[in-house]
Amino acid sequence: MPPVQVDTLISGARIITMDAERRVLTDGAIAISGNLIAAVGPASVVENEVTPRERIDGRRFVITPGYIDCHVHTTGDPLTRGFMPDNIEDSFDDKLVKWVLPRFLSQTPEDERLSARLAALEMLRSGTTCFAEAGTIRHLDEAVEGVEDVGIRARVGIWVQGRDDADPVKANDEAIALLDDEVRKYPAAHDRRVSAWPILVGHSTNSDEVWQHAKRLATEHGLAVSAHMSARQSDPDWFLQRHGRRPVEHLHELGVLGPDLCLTHMVHVDDRELDLLADSGTHVILCPLASVKGAFGITQHGRHAEMVARGINLVLGTDGYNSDLLRQLHLLSGLFKDSVPDIKQMTAERTLELVTTDAARALQLSGTIGALEAGHRADLVCHDTWRPEWMPLMNAVSQLVWSADGRSVHSVWVDGERVIENYRSTRVDEEALFAQVQAAGDNLIRRSALPFVSAWPVVR
Ligand SMILES: [Zn+2]
């Protein structure tokens, strides 16, 4: 067969393919044509199969599929990150009303555009090529524009609640209209990187009708519902008091469980809930860093190792505090090994599956992203190994999880487009953006009237 013309060939690299056989190529090549991977294999084979327009020397790179973050708040936290002290009790009055809502609700549409752009840039710079929003965007159009500016792939959704005991009909109607509008406006068409999902705030904020409507939309449009649940004991307590059953039991009664539902956190679950999650194929999203920072008690109460052992698809999110998924990987692996304790838990290889193949399954994108295989979308990351943390290069998978992190991300492709090159965005003027977000963050804090708190004297 004569060679096929392709756009780009990266040759001579170590490639962690995440394909069905989990091949790791030591002298590999990957060819990109349009928005697809045209070929992946040993360099000696692929070099004879293609004629590239652009050739890249891959000898300094370890190449992986783009990482997938299944739960991140792109607006809300990013513009005011670090402002809230890390010792605020997680109570409704102290934390949510005093610290969180003033920052979230003070954001203008332009703030959300900047916030989403910053969050998406931070993700791409550390190798995340696809994410699912956590459902706290208030100005969806602007947030989508911010995300699209940077070139990342995303599933986004607007802030949807729908439970208001004072006026339940109005609250329901408004929430359902929001869900219908976003799915109509940002359909999950294959040629678009950013599309809408029915992403609910979750916990106790959504009415039964909103849960069921979201599920209907997911089924009709090939999407999934995503929601927060049971980070703390307060969710089971609320559901038991209101409905006489625990959260997962209630969602089962509503017909909402299934492979098109992703529940985030799920720290406080009982045996029956584990059974229902496993039987239904519901995905569970764990945010390791957010969980330990928030003192959710995952090492005391979490049953995530049991979930994995029972075949529940456990995937990862960053929750937006720190968007480097590779830092979540070594934390997660260590937490699993130590909390059981069992050194065989959550190996480096298994951990990597959580942010590639398994995450693609949760986002209904298996066969499209999450592995480097011919025919998949060309979403890939080149880690620069000419750095101290990668030297000497022995076992690329082990070193990726236990020694490296997002700092070594040199280049990133999404949909065949090189969106990060030599550590910088090819689309966004990064320094201009940093100046804009600093000003926007300072203004946001001023408007929200929150006090600056520091345990140490800050000299101005
Ligand atoms: Zn969250």
Secondary structure topology:
Layout: E1 4-16, E2 24-33, E3 36-42, H1 43-49, E4 50-57, E5 61-65, E6 67-72, H2 92-105, H3 109-125, E7 128-133, H4 140-150, E8 153-156, H5 168-185, E9 194-196, E10 199-202, H6 208-221, E11 225-229, H7 234-243, H8 247-254, E12 261-265, H9 271-280, E13 283-286, H10 288-293, H11 304-309, E14 314-316, H12 325-339, H13 348-354, H14 357-362, E15 380-384, H15 396-402, E16 409-414, E17 417-421, E18 424-425, H16 430-448
Parallel strand pairs: 1-4, 1-5, 6-7, 7-8, 8-9, 10-11, 11-12, 12-13, 13-14
Antiparallel strand pairs: 1-2, 2-3, 5-15, 15-16, 16-17, 17-18
Helix pairs in contact: 3-4, 3-16, 5-6, 8-9, 13-15
Largest sheet: 9 strands, mixed
The proportion of strand residues reads 15-25%
The second-level CATH architecture of the largest domain is Alpha-Beta Barrel
Taking all Cα atoms into account, the compactness measure Rg is: 22 Å
Structure notes:
The protein has 16 helices and 18 strands. It is α/β, with parallel strands linked by helices and 460 residues long. The protein has 2 domains: 4-66 and 371-424, Urease, subunit C, domain 1 (Roll); 67-362, TIM Barrel. The strands form 3 sheets. Strands 1, 2, 3, 4, 5, 15, 16, 17 and 18 form a 9-stranded mixed sheet that branches. Strands 10-11-12-13-14 form a 5-stranded parallel sheet. A hairpin with a 2-residue loop joins strand 16 (409-414) and strand 17. The longest helix is centred in the last third of the chain and has 19 residues, at 430-448. Zinc ion binds next to loops.
